[in-house]
Design a protein that fits this description.
Oligomer: heterodimer
Helix content of chain B: 40-55%
Structural class of chain A: mainly alpha
Order of helices and strands of chain B: EEHEEEHHHEEH
Strand content of chain A: under 5%
GO biological process, one term (chain B): intracellular protein transport
Number of helices of chain A: 50
Radius of gyration of chain A: 38 Å
Strand content of chain B: 25-35%
Strand order of the largest sheet of chain B: 2-1-5-4-3
Largest sheet of chain B: 5 strands, antiparallel
Number of helices of chain B: 5
Distance between the termini of chain A: 35 Å
Distance between the termini of chain B: 34 Å
Domain AP complex mu/sigma subunit (chain B): 3-142
Number of strands of chain B: 7
Keywords (chain B): Membrane, Protein transport, Transport
Largest interface: A-B, 110 and 82 residues
Shape of chain B: globular
Shape of chain A: extended
Subcellular location (chain B): Endomembrane system
Structural class of chain B: alpha+beta
Largest sheet of chain A: none
Family (chain B): Belongs to the adaptor complexes small subunit family.
Helix content of chain A: 55-70%
Chain lengths: 1013, 143
């Protein structure tokens, strides 16, 4: 014993010696993420009566390596002393085994090494944990080891039951450890929960409020909808518990019940209101969470609380709460933020409520400490609140100033918040974006992906027809550059959405869509592909035929260029095939054999993609038909022939059917072909005779020949079903031959593409060259028959092939010229005007913010147009909701069968109908725009001067994007130099822990480094 | 819901503490942690402390060798969460004294208890260090 204490004394002396050498180390500086203001530190930690207490006098300042105390190293002495002290009683009060485990995990250098350690640990524990008579302390340690196993990603379910048992223990520490382990291991629906509910019930009644707290903690995570009734009564009683900590947890337990099953606590909601006036600020603060949820669901029932919330917020802001709730001199910031969130809900669209809030929000904004993170957090929340409640001009101004400060800041975090806040505020005052254009562009070009993405979100919100080209181009570049599919999809669909809404020209639209499809084709909604085909087919519709054909030609040309590229997404190939089939030969620029060669190439190159092959073969058929109908001689290419052979034997019944249909069409005469495949008729309607009245004669005849009438499926009896199944089977055997005799019993043929569907076309056409109808009659007796073959091969209904859905769909087209002119000419002029560093950015700014930037620029893009566009973007939200104003007059109900849908569900149709027609809205602006464009050229000097003045004001900001980063905070840079593992300390600790028998091999000295140091 | 998980991960990407406020299976947790850690550890100190990942927004802060990662939903105030992390570290520092990674590893349950006092149902319910630590100190005394 004497030797031991001597040793310890020696060690302590030694460490003091070390400490003096450490003092010569460069001073450690704050971790770089900390704001300068965060330098305020907590009181020195309590010493817990350990033997190092005698170093108290050094600790006051010295334990903070960041403070210029006598010796930056002394702090570690304390830690070491503590560990040593604990080591003497067996190390941290835990067994050597546990210490070894933790150390070996801590020192594992790779995931696989860690996995090995954990797997070994699992084996050990499986053996040990089931031994009889394990001391409780030991069991607690085992449980913690189980927690480690799960935390490191392995299954510890073999020990769950022991954690459950531990919740029954009388010792508070063990009980709480048990509850902790259970909440970490089990979800609320686990089988073992039922064993805990009883314990929770008992503990909620305990005299020891710490036990009650532990049980309430467990309630929040473990009680599910079914077990709520078992505890709810007790939880409600605890709302009146004398200890504020218990009241607070009871509120949160009720909150969790409300989240799980609102109906189970509906009658208790008044309790939340009551607790809002609790004496304890902690309980009041907790009450805000359930109230926030309730207000989100039903604002109007809580309008009476506006005054209370405002009052509380005022008191908090005036520092009426106990000092302990201060965080870095800011009074209860988390409560303030929650209150602001609640107020923004209550004030939204409510003038009267909003007016009550103006004063307090203004006060908070004035008081807030803009040099600390927490002050800025509150400021940001104020901006969110201001942009949500009924606008107050004065507050909007303050908010705009705050945003300006955020954006000007060097901190990326603040810039991020600024961009986000800007996105919120432009909904109310769109003009403020223009003040910050250069800051926004800086963020856009920042290498930080998070900031970039946030900025794209902002751009997305402020897109209008004057800047759509720049924004979408940028977005596409960004989309190409990222790998994350989730965000690729999101960006792609945003590009598509913006392009559809604001496209300035057809050509641009096609090019944009090509890019999107090429790089994210498989990620975008299939609807988008259908939309694109429809737009190409429709073009302008009635007013301009040459423009239509130009559009198609440019689409065909661009597709022919792209089509040979490898790895094109399936959705894009489908579009390409369809367009080539429909319009490939339309202009006579490309020969039919050239187009069909390309199509065969596509089918060959993507032989594993049945859908693409289907599109290709149908496109081939169209090319062939159009040629033949035009009176030109058309012989099938050899590769086309072999493709047909291959597909005729395909496993896909759809492909087989298409191949057979093609074969059948080959033998038809020109007349029939013209009927089946009229040129460019994809936009025409297919009239569907739903009652199939044209078959009446045939049905009549069949009846006369003794056929039984058709009984709808739901009216059939069971016996019939059996016989029909048998019948169906025999029918399947006879594929490839058409039955002409009437059916005995109607068959419930499932409406999928079964082999029977293929059977018809083989014999169909040769038999009935001009009169195709009768051959379909057997099938048309059953309305459920797949409609695909009917429309595709063109039964006699006068309809044509490949109908696009037209119902409820509108055009979204702008004139092809006006916007490209203005946005292209603008950058060019600014290029001439000055050659500063920020020129690139100026250009970008001008094109992004062109609609609003400056007076002269606005002339460029059209004064009146600029204005009305701005206002339109704000209206845009409502527009979407409104029913479409322009619908294609030819829309039919029900929709024609859609071949393009192939595999996809037919449920898409409805969603087509809810988009607006921006083109229609643009109509009034078009002429104006063009006039102004003409005028703009003469205004060039004016423009230049305005750009210059712009540069002067913002030059300082834009010129040095990089130096700015460098000068962020000198301390940050230096911090990163001196930070990192402090080897010295680590070695000290290491040596001592080794004494304790932990045997660290010092592979991971970081384990010892101060988190705050 | 606010906070959806709190993670402490060291520089090597090894998890030191994990608390989820919504249930994820072991497998989901493992993949999520792997993806997030890879994303956050790759970032430099000038970049902002927020990362978007699927439906989560991750607010992270580095202290010496340890990263504190907090997953939040979209409505959460990122700066406030950043300060919540700092509060957590300050609280642990007050309890452990010069808290280091090893303290958390050796006293995993205590670190969890502190978190339990501060966050319930994913909401920051307690920010007073004295209130957070009182039950833990009492428990230490009684046991």
């Amino acid at each position: 014993m004497l030797r031991l204490s001597l040793l310890m004394l020696l060690l302590l002396l030694l460490s003091r010696v070390f400490s003096s050498t450490e003092s010569s180390r460069p001073q450690k500086i704050l971790p770089p993420t900390m704001p300068a203001k965060a330098l305020v530190y907590p009181n020195p930690p309590s010493t817990n009566g350990l033997m190092y207490a005698r170093y108290q006098k050094y600790k006051l300042h010295a334990y903070r390596p960041t403070c210029p105390g006598p010796s930056p190293g002394v702090g570690h002495l304390k830690t070491i002393g503590r560990e040593l002290a604990m080591g003497s009683q067996g190390g941290f009060g835990q067994s050597k085994e546990f210490l070894d485990l933790v150390k070996s995990i801590g020192e594992a250098r790779s995931k696989s090494e860690e996995d090995r350690i954990v797997l070994r640990e699992i084996e050990t524990l499986k053996r040990r944990i089931n031994e009889p008579d394990i001391p409780k302390r030991k069991m607690k340690e085992y449980i913690i080891r189980l927690v480690y196993i799960e935390m490191l990603g392995h299954d510890a379910s073999f020990g769950y039951i022991h954690a459950v048992k531990m919740t029954h223990d009388d010792s508070l520490l063990l009980k709480r450890t048990g509850y902790l382990a259970v909440t970490l291991f089990l979800n609320e629906d686990h089988d073992l929960i039922i064993l805990i509910v009883n314990t929770i019930q008992k503990d909620l009644k305990s005299d020891n409020y710490l036990v009650v707290s532990a049980a309430l903690n467990a309630c929040c995570k473990l009680i599910n909808e079914e077990t709520i009734p078992a505890v709810i009564q007790q939880v409600v009683e605890l709302l009146g518990h004398p200890k504020e900590g218990v009241r607070k947890k009871a509120v949160m337990a009720l909150h969790s019940f409300h989240q799980r099953s609102p109906s189970s606590v509906n009658h208790l909601i008044s309790n939340f209101r009551k607790r809002l006036s609790d004496n304890d600020p902690g309980v009041m603060g907790a009450t805000l969470f359930p109230l926030y949820d309730l207000i989100t669901i039903d604002v109007n029932s809580y309008k009476d609380l506006v005054a209370s919330f405002v009052n509380i917020l005022k008191q908090v802001a005036e520092r009426r709460l106990p000092k302990t709730y201060d965080y870095h001199q800011t009074p209860a910031p988390f409560i303030q933020i929650k209150l602001l969130k609640i107020l923004s809900l209550l004030g939204s669209g409510d003038k009267k409520s909003s007016e009550q809030m103006y004063t307090v929000i203004g006060d908070i904004m004035r008081k807030s400490d803009t040099s600390s993170n927490i002050g800025n957090a509150i400021l940001y929340e104020c901006i969110c609140c201001i942009s949500s409640i009924q606008p107050s001009p004065k507050l909007l101004e303050t908010a705009a100033d705050a945003i300006a400060n955020f954006l000007k800041s060097d901190s990326h975090n603040l810039k991020y918040m600024g961009i986000d806040a800007l996105g919120r505020l432009i909904r109310i005052s769109p003009d403020i974006a223009e003040q910050h254009q250069l800051a926004v562009i800086d963020c856009l070009e920042d290498p930080d992906d998070t900031l970039k993405r946030k900025t794209f979100e902002l751009l997305y919100k402020m897109t209008k027809s004057s800047n759509v080209e720049v924004i979408v181009d940028r977005m596409i570049d960004y989309m190409i550059s990222i790998n994350d599919n989730h965000y690729k999809t999101e960006t792609a669909s945003r590009c598509v959405e913006l392009a559809e809404q604001f496209a300035p020209s057809n050509h641009w639209f096609i090019q944009t869509m090509n890019k999107v499809f090429q790089h994210a084709g498989d990620l975008v909604n299939p609807k988008v592909a259908h939309n694109l085909m429809r737009l190409i087919a429709e073009g302008f519709g009635e007013d301009d035929d040459t423009a239509d054909s130009q559009l198609r030609l440019s689409a065909v040309e661009s597709y022919l260029k792209i089509v040979d590229e490898p790895k094109l997404p399936s959705a894009f190939l489908q579009v390409i095939c369809w367009v080539l089939g429909e319009y490939g030969t339309a202009d006579g620029k490309y020969s039919a054999s050239y187009i069909s060669g390309k199509l065969c190439d596509v089918a060959e190159a993507h032989s594993s993609d049945d859908i693409v092959k289907g599109y290709a073969v149908t496109a081939l058929m169209k090319v062939y038909c159009f040629e033949k109908a035009a009176g030109r001689k058309m012989s099938l290419l050899p590769e086309c022939q072999s493709l047909l052979d291959e597909l005729s034997a395909s496993h896909s019944s759809d492909l087989q059917q298409r191949a057979y249909e093609f074969r059948a069409v080959l033998d038809l005469d020109v007349n029939a072909i013209e009927n089946i495949m009229p040129l460019d008729a994809s936009c025409e309607d297919i009239e569907i005779d739903k009652s199939l009245s044209f078959l009446n004669d045939y049905v009549q005849k069949s009846f006369e020949q003794g056929a039984e009438p058709y009984i709808p499926e739901n009216e059939r009896s069971g016996t019939l079903n059996i016989s029909s199944i048998r019948n169906h089977n025999s029918y399947e055997h006879s594929t490839h031959s058409l039955r002409f005799e009437a059916y005995d019993v109607p068959k419930p043929v499932v409406p999928t593409k079964l082999p029977p569907a293929v059977a018809y076309p083989t014999d169909l056409v040769p038999v009935t060259v001009n009169v195709t109808e009768p051959s379909y009659q057997p099938s048309s007796v059953q309305p459920t028959w797949p409609l695909v073959p009917v429309s595709d091969a063109g039964s006699g209904s006068g309809s044509t092939e490949l109908k696009l859905r037209l119902d409820g769909v509108q055009k979204k087209w702008g004139k092809p010229t006006y916007s490209s002119v203005m946005s292209k000419s603008l950058p060019r002029e600014s290029r001439q005007s000055h050659v500063e560093v920020s020129e690139e950015k100026q250009k970008l700014a001008a094109s992004l913010f062109g609609g609003t930037t400056s007076r002269s620029e606005r002339k460029q893009s059209g004064g009146a147009a600029g204005h009305s566009k701005v206002s339109r973007t704000t209206n845009h939200g409502e527009d979407k909701v409104r029913p479409a104003t322009v619908t294609v007059p030819t829309a039919v109900q029900p929709p024609p069968p859609d071949l393009l849908d192939l595999g996809e569900s037919a449920g898409d149709t409805s969603s087509y109908s809810s988009t607006v027609d921006p083109f229609h809205q643009l109509e009034g602006l078009l002429d104006l725009n063009q006039d102004v464009n003409a005028a703009a050229t003469s205004n060039a000097p004016d423009l230049m001067s305005s750009l210059y003045s712009d540069a002067d004001t913002n030059g300082s900001l834009s010129q040095n994007p990089n130096p700015m980063n460098g000068s962020v905070n000198p301390s940050k840079k230096t911090a990163s130099l001196t930070k990192g593992p402090s080897l010295k300390d680590a070695l000290d600790k290491d040596a001592l822990v080794r004494q304790m028998g932990v045997n660290p091999t010092s592979q991971n000295p970081n384990l010892f480094s101060d988190l705050l140091g | 819901m606010g906070i959806r998980f709190v993670l402490m991960v060291n520089k090597q990407g090894q998890t030191r503490l994990a608390q989820y406020y919504e249930y994820l299976t072991l497998e989901e947790r493992r993949t999520l942690e792997g993806e997030i850690v890879r994303k956050c550890l790759a970032r430099n100190e000038q970049q902002c402390s927020f990362v978007e990942h699927r439906t989560y927004k991750i607010v992270y802060r580095r202290y010496a060798s340890l990263f504190f990662l907090v997953g939040v939903d979209n409505e959460e105030n990122e700066l406030a969460i950043l300060e919540f992390i700092h509060l957590l570290v300050e609280t642990m520092d007050r309890h452990f004294g010069n808290v280091c990674e090893l303290d958390i590893m050796f006293h995993l349950e205590k670190a969890h208890f502190m978190l339990e006092e501060m966050v319930m149902n994913g909401c920051v319910v307690e920010t007073s260090k004295a209130n957070i630590l009182a039950p833990i100190q009492l428990m230490d005394k009684t046991s």
